[in-house]
């Protein structure tokens, strides 16, 4: 019987995979002849390989058969293809952990261990006979599943608490969303037949809940019975004749596979409508008002440094961004803009903390306009420096570029250090063309950067 060998990161093939005997993920032992033939077959340990050998040996021999003309292991391409095909069949089928009969052999689905849901048996007898071997693995699997469930429950509690905290502060954006739907759908029925539905999601960069979908009308019949009773109870209690509008909004979020929602009973009188500039309310206004409701929590401790580190990793991709800044501010022209103008870029942030999903466009603004745009974003601007381009030369100049995600109003200011002693032999048109070229190159670098290089956080 062939020996087994462990594989680590020194090879380019997968380091682990599902065990060919028990289907458990993370098996590290690989069948050596199959490995040499280009077929990935893994086992948890020597015992799994011994148990599976009666079935696996046919696959192993076919995959590792020698081409008589070339005398090379695995030279027979047809045998290799047939071995891979048989392995895929084995991977997609179920085998009894005791007698190794498949679901095809017995003509029905195998039974599963009710405790760990990871072992399969063709009969009760096989399960009883296999229990002395399986009980230790069963206990380990149950503890692992319980730990994972506990982790998800604790994270679910964190999301729920943040959502409740946000909804207590979000009266203005929810009222704006209700009026937005009322203005278009006319839902002021008494009692209500439809409600306003607002879907939000947690944004790891803005550290608050932002609008995920356009507010819409939803039939009250589509809600749960508990929600219906809560809506009608609040409606009957708050509805008065002196109100201009009275409506119900359901604010909902789905995180970690769980849905949390809150019922809002909204009274829109003249004072509230005037304070919101109701005539100008649109989707962008509602999204902005949602993002302005900032949250504070101990859960966010340490996020700022992680966010800054992730942003630095992306901004330091090559020298494209520094070259873009120099050309956009016309460093190479006689009439340089380096002392009078700055750059503001429109970005779209990803779901992970500090992840830049897409660079959209940029504008060169005067310093006065730049400061005004920065003030409009608010006090939550993250400051990031390009440490790689920083030089000890006193002739270097610090240039700030403001990046803003206008969907969530998350913003960060990135500082690069550019040398001012450059050859000024270009025209403004040439600089603009070069800036656009470097900006497109940097867009591509951001797009192609693997997300697994960034540090992640979980609530």
From TrEMBL:
- What are this entry's molecular-function GO terms? zinc ion binding
Q: Which InterPro entries match?
A: Znf_MYND
Does this UniProt record's set of keywords contain Protein biosynthesis?
A: no
MYND-type domain residues are 19-60, 96-138
Tagged with keyword Zinc-finger: yes
What residue ranges carry the coiled-coil annotation? none
Annotated region Disordered: the residues are 65-84
Keyword tags: Metal-binding, Zinc, Zinc-finger
The protein depicted here goes by the name MYND-type domain-containing protein
């Amino acid at each position: 019987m062939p020996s087994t060998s462990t594989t680590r990161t020194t090879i380019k093939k997968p380091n682990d995979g599902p065990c060919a005997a028990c289907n458990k993920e993370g098996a590290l032992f690989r069948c050596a002849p199959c490995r040499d033939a280009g077929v990935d077959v893994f086992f948890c340990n020597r015992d799994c390989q011994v148990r599976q050998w009666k079935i696996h040996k046919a696959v192993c021999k076919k995959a590792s058969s020698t081409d008589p003309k070339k005398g090379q292991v695995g030279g027979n391409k047809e045998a290799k293809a047939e071995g891979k095909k048989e392995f895929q069949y084995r991977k997609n089928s179920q085998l009894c952990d005791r007698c190794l009969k498949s679901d095809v052999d017995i003509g029905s689905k195998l039974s599963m261990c009710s405790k760990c849901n990871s072992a399969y048996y063709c009969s009760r007898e096989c399960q009883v006979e296999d229990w002395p071997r399986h009980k230790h693995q069963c206990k380990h699997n149950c503890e692992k599943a319980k730990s994972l469930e506990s982790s998800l429950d604790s994270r679910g509690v964190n999301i729920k608490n943040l959502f409740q905290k946000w909804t207590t502060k979000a009266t203005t954006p929810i009222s704006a969303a209700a009026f937005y739907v009322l203005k278009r759908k006319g839902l002021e029925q008494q009692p209500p037949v439809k409600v306003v539905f607002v879907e939000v999601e947690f944004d790891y960069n803005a550290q608050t809940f932002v609008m995920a979908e356009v507010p819409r009308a939803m039939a009250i019949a589509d809600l749960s019975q508990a929600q219906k009773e809560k809506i009608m109870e609040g409606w009957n209690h708050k509805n008065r004749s002196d109100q201009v509008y009275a409506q119900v909004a359901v604010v909902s979020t789905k995180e970690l596979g769980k849905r949390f929602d809150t019922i809002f009973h909204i009274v829109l009188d003249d004072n509230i409508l005037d304070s919101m500039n109701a005539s100008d309310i649109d989707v962008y206004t509602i999204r902005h008002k949602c993002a302005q409701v900032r949250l504070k929590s101990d859960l966010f401790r340490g996020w700022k440094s992680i966010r800054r580190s992730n942003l630095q990793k992306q901004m330091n991709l090559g020298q494209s961004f520094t070259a873009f800044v120099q050309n956009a501010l016309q460093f190479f022209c006689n009439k340089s803009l380096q002392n009078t103008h700055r750059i503001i870029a429109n970005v779209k942030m990803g779901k992970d903390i500090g992840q830049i999903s897409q660079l959209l466009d940029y504008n060169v603004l005067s310093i006065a306009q730049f400061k005004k745009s920065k003030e409009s974003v608010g006090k939550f601007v993250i400051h990031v420096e390009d440490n790689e381009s920083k030089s000890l030369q006193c002739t270097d100049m610090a240039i700030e570029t403001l990046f803003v995600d206008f969907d969530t109003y998350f913003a960060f200011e990135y500082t690069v250090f550019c040398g001012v002693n450059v050859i000024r032999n270009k025209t403004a048109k040439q600089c603009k063309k070069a800036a656009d070229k470097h900006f497109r190159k940097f867009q591509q670098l951001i797009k192609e950067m693997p997300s697994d290089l960034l540090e992640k956080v979980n609530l």
